[in-house]
Design goal:
Elements: E1 19-21, E2 27-30, E3 39-40, E4 50-52, E5 55-58, H1 66-74, H2 76-84, H3 98-101, H4 111-150
Antiparallel strand pairs: 1-4, 2-3, 2-5
Length: 160
């Protein structure tokens, strides 16, 4: 399942750590503790989006196969490969090498089947992203209004 937590929007120049520039269509996988599946279908609402270097960035070269690639990366088989290839010096912070993910073998359907799959699955992924953005906006509005309402600084008129 795609990670449904919402990203934090910050100015990239204010982030002092290293970062990768990402673009619409990239898929992110956390390098840290892969036993906790963390796959991101990022919200690139600007052309200056970045992510932490704690993610592996997969860039799909053809947009019409992205849905297939995302499904592969979300698969239990891929997750198992990540867990089996992670290493740790302390035992508590397992880390994954991006090169190890290239060991993943999978069937590659012909372009027609990839396109067909993409055309079916992509609207579903897009709807999930849009609903997550809507939910985040509603939560932000709630978090702003609730203290005002509790302190009597704002009133809501009932439509009834």
């Amino acid at each position: 399942m795609i990670l449904v937590s919402f990203p934090i929007f910050e100015k990239s120049f204010e982030i002092l750590s290293n970062k990768y520039r990402i673009s619409q269509g990239d898929i992110l996988v956390s390098k840290l503790n892969p036993k906790f599946k963390r796959v991101w279908d990022p919200y690139c609402i600007t052309n200056m989006a970045v992510c932490s270097t704690e993610f592996i960035v997969y860039h799909c070269l053809r947009n019409d196969c992205r849905g297939y690639l995302l499904a592969l990366i979300e698969s239990d088989r891929f997750s198992k490969l990540l867990v089996n290839n992670s290493s740790s010096s302390t035992g508590s912070r397992n880390r994954l090498s991006p090169e190890d993910t290239l060991k993943f073998t999978f069937a590659i359907p012909n372009q027609h089947i990839q396109k067909k799959y993409h055309n079916i699955i992509s609207p579903i992924y897009e709807k999930i992203k849009n609903k997550n953005m809507e939910n985040n906006l509603l939560a932000t509005i709630r978090d702003f209004l609730l203290p005002l309402l509790m302190n009597g600084q704002a009133t809501i008129q009932s439509p009834f």
